[in-house]
Specification:
Among the domains are: 116 residues, Immunoglobulin-like (Sandwich), CATH 2.60.40; 235 residues, no CATH class; 198 residues, no CATH class. The chain has 24 helices and 20 strands. The strands form four sheets. It has an eleven-stranded mixed beta sheet with strand order 8-9-10-11-12-20-15-19-16-18-17, with helices on both faces. A four-stranded antiparallel beta sheet has the order 2-7-6-5. A three-stranded mixed beta sheet has the order 1-3-4. It starts with a strand and ends in an 18-residue tail after the last helix. 42% of the residues are buried. The N terminus is likely disordered. This is Type II inositol 3,4-bisphosphate 4-phosphatase isoform X3.
Length: 855
């Protein structure tokens, strides 16, 4: 039998509390036999800040030696490297984890006159098969694991496992977004060109705007090319947050999972995503962040609109214009495809499938009419008309300063029926396009605009009338012989002169083609008018507006990468939870972002950026799809859409996809409600609270509390409480919300209870948890470890004597100090003693783990 050996390295810290109990466990896939040799190498850390260490001694033993010893315990002498002297003693004992839960793996601990709680560490993350299936491995990489054992209040032991991983979405989502930005701006250029001939004034302005878009496209193409060259780590370290070519990449994005194994209980999992605050660090915060800059930008737009003789459109109207443009681009091809499908169905199918297709066609045409009858489109048509060469207004030479309602009429909308008579669809029919819904504008080419709208309504009504006539000709025949084709029905049992199938299909083909052409004409006119609105917005944007759009793009990219990572992690964790899946498609999920930024100096700008970036996530929907294979590349989420609306498709392997509820398998859009709560905890926040302004933080917390409360009301009205997870803590969610509502309006310095309550509510309602500070490295580490130990105390009866010890152990030896090492190549948090004096008590790291560094 082959012998396997491993080298176990122990670090002895020069602390005042010399108790240390490290350990090692062997995963099931490791080749461990009785003959396996284990070598212990012990190092002393001379300087906890600089991490310098010296070799103390080593010792070896076999597994058989341990198992055959009295009480399964060995006392070994530590020998120097040249084996010339004994420098100490180490006691090795077998700890059977069956004491915690039958069937658990054995552990070996080495007692060096110290007592700590870290019992295992691994850099490959292959302890738990559940976290390392094809699904998880496709998106989450380079896991680091730490395992601890802690004593409960009833003197039993729990096993706690931390796993921190990088996420492929840190780079893949931003790269997809940049490509979509390029595609959208390229289309925008084409739309501006498609406006047709304009007066010299407007043509010159159009050329300037196209030149700006070309500049953005060139910069984004260069950035994408640089990102494509990158290989190596799947995260952006904190020291690179100011790099221009990395501005779209989230800072230090990692997932962290805590798994808890307790006696006679099923394992519990607690997930959190840690990420640096989404902010435009490369552009700086000298003039504030997005929230302040956008407000200033709108004020400037009004003055520029006057200078360039443009109509000023407020943000809600330009947003509506983009929405209309998006709806038109989606609905026109959809209506055209349904019209073609109707013709194909008419040739070979029974009447019921024909009615199903007709119903879909009616619904999509109604949506089309509803979207384009907006007053904004009417005023834009007039403005575009006024921008044509040679235009002379009867009453004025410029467009009105704001859209105004136009009068509506009800043109006579009828069609020739198949028997030559005139008919109007029955009032009881399921919502055909009504003539009184056709918009027009008194001041702009009224007859022509009415004509194209009337043609849409008339064509659809004719299609409906033809199908109605078909069913009326022989309704009894359909009931007795539902399998008959349309040709059978048309030529039999009709009180009117029978129609041949060919004549009926020819008539249907004519009106369907007319419908398609009418919809295309209306869509083209609307597309041009709305594009003219966006041209005017771009004209008023100036160079500052261009830079502002780039800033918003970058911040949103960071936020979306984090959200996609959190959604995927939460989805994977809940695939077998029917209640969670029901909640997911019924009301969506809350994504709760916890921020520890101060409201002082540059971090005000970061928080302003973060607020806008998180708020913009409401434009995102998720959709679950079936992966083509279980290869990693097939299970990478993909992003599609444009700035006003994005969809993230999350592929699942066949076996996981097939057991999902019908709504999810059918591709129903899934929405995530982003909420942000911020409480600054550092010394800069102390200055802000005493001498500065914390109104930004107060406004954010109050606003997002209202959003969270609204979601909970929707949740309780739609989904049974059985969908929600069970917690040992008995406090009702409603009580937690009331307490949170009280705290967000209470004047209290560094009120971290807001964060605790928001995080607790989020977990209780199946939400996605995010924790952020400037770089997700130092303050974030304090928050994550505190939350983990609080969960162990509140949900798993962690012995109160272990709370601070567990907290210190996680901060000194856990995944978060590894995160610090990954970011700045040094195992110390970037705090100094003066800073920590301003921190809330439980946010302070243990002695020896901090020191001021550049980050």
């Amino acid at each position: 039998m082959d012998l396997s050996s491993c080298c176990w390295r122990l670090r002895c810290w020069g602390t005042r509390d010399p108790m240390f109990l490290p350990g090692v466990s062997f995963p099931p896939d490791w080749p461990v036999y009785r003959e396996t040799l284990i070598k212990l190498s012990v190092y002393g850390v001379n300087d906890g800040l600089q991490q310098t260490s010296n070799f103390l001694g080593s010792s070896s033993f076999s597994v058989a030696d341990l198992l055959q010893s009295k009480d399964q315990q060995l006392s070994l002498s530590l020998r120097t490297a040249d084996d010339s002297a004994t420098v100490g003693t180490v006691v090795v004992s077998r700890m059977k984890m069956g004491e915690i839960e039958d069937g658990e793996v054995d552990h070996i601990t080495a007692d060096m006159h110290q007592k700590c709680t870290l019992v295992y560490e691994s850099s490959h993350g292959r302890i738990n098969d559940q976290d390392n299936g094809p699904i998880m491995n496709a998106v989450f990489k380079n896991a680091v694991c730490k395992v601890y054992r802690f004593q409960t209040v009833d003197s039993k032991w729990m096993l706690v496992r931390e796993q921190m991983a990088e996420c492929t979405l840190s780079f893949s989502v931003p790269k997809q977004l940049i490509a979509l930005y390029i595609q959208e701006d390229t289309c925008r250029i084409q739309e501006l060109k498609d406006l047709g001939e304009l007066s010299p004034h407007w043509d010159n302005l159009r050329k300037d705007v196209i030149s700006r878009y070309d500049q953005i496209i060139k910069e984004y193409q260069d950035t994408l090319a640089e990102l494509e060259k990158l290989t190596g780590p799947l995260f952006k370290p904190s020291c690179s947050k100011g790099q221009k070519y990395l501005e779209f990449i989230p800072i230090n994005l990692h997932t962290q999972r805590m798994q808890v194994t307790c006696p006679r209980k099923t394992d519990s999992f607690y997930d959190v995503v840690t990420v640096g605050a989404p902010a435009a660090h490369s552009q700086g915060f000298k003039n504030g962040g997005l929230q302040k800059l956008l407000s200033k930008y709108e004020t400037e737009k009004k003055s520029y609109s006057t200078a360039y003789q443009c109509i000023y459109y407020p943000p809600e109207q330009t947003a509506k214009a983009r929405e209309i443009l998006c709806v038109v681009s989606q609905l026109q091809p959809h209506i055209s495809a349904l019209a073609d499908q109707l013709l194909q169905t008419a040739q070979k199918s029974p009447i019921q499938p024909l009615r199903d297709v007709l119903k879909s066609l009616e619904e999509k045409t109604e949506q089309f009419v509803h979207a384009l009858k907006d007053e904004l489109v009417k005023s834009a048509l007039l403005a575009l008309h006024a921008a044509r060469p040679g235009y002379v207004s009867k009453s004025q030479t410029s467009a009105p300063s704001s859209p105004h309602p136009g009068a509506t009429e009800e043109p006579h909308s009828v069609c020739n029926n198949v028997d030559g008579s005139q008919t109007t669809p029955k009032e009881s029919r399921a919502s055909p396009v009504r003539a009184d819904s056709i918009p027009h504008h008194k001041e702009y080419d009224e007859e022509e605009w009415d004509r194209v709208w009337a043609s849409v309504a008339k064509s659809l009504n004719c299609v409906i009338a033809l199908v109605d006539k078909l069913q009326e000709q022989d309704n009894n025949n359909l009931e007795s012989a539902p399998g008959h084709t349309l040709a059978d029905v048309i030529t039999s049992h009709s009180p009117d002169p029978p129609l041949t199938a060919e004549v009926w299909q020819d008539q249907l083909g004519v009106v369907v083609q007319t419908l398609k052409e009418s919809v295309a004409e209306v869509a083209e006119r609307a597309r041009r008018s709305v594009s003219f609105i966006l041209l005017q917005e771009a004209v008023c944007s100036t160079a500052q507006g261009l830079q502002l759009q780039q800033r918003r793009d970058a911040v949103f990219s960071q936020a979306l990468a984090a959200l996609a990572c959190g959604f995927v992690m939460r989805l994977y964790a809940g695939l077998e939870d029917k209640g969670f899946l029901r909640q997911l498609h019924a009301v969506g999920l809350v994504a709760q972002f916890e921020s520890l930024l101060s409201t002082y100096s540059e971090e005000i700008g970061m928080l302003e950026d973060m607020e806008v970036g998180i708020s913009d996530l409401h434009r995102v929907a998720f959709r679950i799809t079936e992966a083509a294979s279980e290869e990693a590349f097939s299970m990478q989420p993909t992003v599609s859409g444009r700035r006003d609306r994005y969809t993230v498709e999350v592929p699942l392997p066949h076996h996981a996809f097939q057991v999902l509820p019908d709504e999810l398998r059918q591709g129903k859009p899934l929405h995530v409600l982003p909420v942000l709560f911020n409480v600054g905890i550092n010394e800069q926040q102390t200055i802000a609270e005493r001498f500065g302004d914390i109104s930004l933080q107060e406004r954010i917390n109050q606003k997002n509390f209202e959003i969270l409360e609204g979601y909970y009301k929707s949740l309780t009205n739609t989904v049974s409480s059985e969908c929600l997870p069970c917690f040992q803590t008995q406090t009702d969610i409603r009580e937690l919300l009331d307490s949170l509502g009280h705290n967000v309006v209470t004047k209290k310095r560094k009120n971290v209870e807001i964060l605790w309550l928001a995080g607790m509510i989020c977990r209780r309602i199946n939400g996605i948890r995010f924790t952020s500070c400037k770089s997700a490295k130092d303050r974030t580490s304090m928050s994550v470890t505190l939350e983990q130990c609080s969960l162990l105390r509140d949900e798993h009866q962690l012995n109160k004597d272990y709370f601070v010890r567990a907290l210190d152990c996680m901060r000194r030896e856990g995944c978060r100090i590894e995160n610090v090492q990954k970011n700045i190549k040094c195992r110390k948090y970037a705090f100094n003693m003066l800073q920590l004096m301003a921190f809330p008590k439980y946010y302070r790291p243990p002695e020896g783990t901090y020191g001021k560094v550049d980050s």
